[in-house]
Write a structure and sequence with these properties.
There is one protein chain. By secondary structure, this protein is mostly helical. Helices cover 70% and strands 3% of the residues. The protein contains 14 helices and four strands. A hairpin with a 3-residue loop joins strand 2 and strand 3. Helix 3 (57-82) packs antiparallel against helix 11. The radius of gyration is 21 Å and the shape is globular.
Length: 352
């Protein structure tokens, strides 16, 4: 039997199905509304200043490929943040899983699918340990996963040097693994885009159309109330941390097969990029509010901005500044839009 938990009035669970004649307030309360405006705005901006190259198939591939890899990580990170937790270890998990498949199947010569399974298993173990430490010690997840970030990074570097004598390992994945995880469709679009779409569909259904999704929002809104109503808070958090690390491991495997190699330094940019994408998508850092659609839109916004700058012809020295300003503007717009929505009260019709 599923426990029902009342959500705080200021942070209602988003409903994806909207009745006909929905009011402005109903639409504005959806966490993805502000993210949609941001995505459209940055796309139009770079379509104007980037010109035909940005709008070409190659231009679209440049930001869709970035969005796919980032999105596979951002979706489970977004779920974790909706539940009120953070995971800073995804960068090290990506690097360690990438090196695992390269060492097992490239350096040692085991079948590539053995290396893939070993890499994914590593991600599951790291995520499980993160969740276990957070729930059993009550140490903030920021501290626990930060420690994991540095600890796993050092372990990956040390073991790589001991086993292979180097920090970069070549890999020949073979045609089947290459086609499944590391090929380019039409010579431009990574097959990771399809894995990202699959993750959107599966996780979107789980969060917004299953009882399990109610539990995620309840844990993020008020974990004590959730616990008293019978929701397995500890088990939920462990599962969410495991999912976050698993997503990072999947991207690590994809990158190693795509580029036929792995490096210890891979993945560190994903630590904050995933959080930035999730926040742009309307997820609150305090938890209890957000949607998968919003995370997808936030990922697209971040990817369009990060790649679109190079199509404008502007001095690339200013790229980081432009990226920071546009991301801050998008986040401020989301916050403003959310405050307007939460303070909105529909007018009542006058009696005849």
């Amino acid at each position: 039997m599923t426990a029902q938990v009342a959500q705080p009035s200021a942070q209602p669970k988003p409903q994806l199905g909207t009745a006909s004649g929905a009011s402005f307030g109903d639409l504005a309360r959806r966490p993805e509304t502000g993210a949609l405006i941001g995505t459209i705005s940055v796309f139009v901006f770079f379509a104007i200043f980037g010109g035909g190259q940005f709008l070409s198939a190659g231009g679209a591939a440049s930001w869709l490929n970035v969005a796919a890899e980032l999105g596979i990580i951002a979706i489970p990170v977004g779920l974790l943040m909706i539940a009120g937790e953070l995971d800073l270890s995804v960068g090290s998990v990506l690097a360690s899983s990438s090196m695992t498949v390269a060492i097992v199947s490239g350096h040692w010569g085991a079948p590539v699918f053995v290396g893939i399974l070993a890499a994914l298993l590593l991600g599951l173990v790291v995520g499980f340990l993160n969740g276990l430490l957070v729930t059993r010690t009550n140490v903030p997840s920021f501290i626990v996963t930060l420690a994991t970030l540095f600890g796993l990074s050092g372990l990956t570097l040390g073991l790589s040097r001991v086993i292979t004598g180097t920090t970069s390992v070549a890999l020949d994945p073979g045609p089947q693994a290459k086609q499944l995880l590391g090929t380019l469709v039409a010579g431009k679009f990574e097959v990771a885009i399809f894995w990202w779409i699959a993750a959107i569909v599966v996780v979107g259904w789980l969060l917004h159309f299953s009882p399990w999704g109610n539990w995620v929002f309840a844990v993020g809104g008020d974990k004590e109330s959730a616990r008293t109503t019978g929701i397995p808070v500890q088990g939920m958090k462990i599962a969410l941390f495991t999912g976050s690390a698993f997503g990072a491991a999947v991207v690590g495997v994809i990158q190693s097969i795509l580029y036929n190699s792995a490096q210890v330094a891979n993945g560190q940019s994903f630590v904050f990029n995933s959080i930035i994408a999730v926040v742009i998508g309307g997820v609150l850092l305090t938890g209890g509010y957000g949607s998968v659609v919003g995370v997808v839109l936030g990922t697209l916004t971040f990817s369009i901005v990060s790649q679109g700058i190079y199509y404008t012809g502007w001095n690339s020295d200013w790229a980081a500044l432009i990226l920071g300003v546009l991301i801050l503007a998008a986040v401020l717009m989301n916050n403003t839009f959310r405050r307007m929505a939460l303070s909105y009260a529909p007018r009542t019709k006058r009696r005849a």
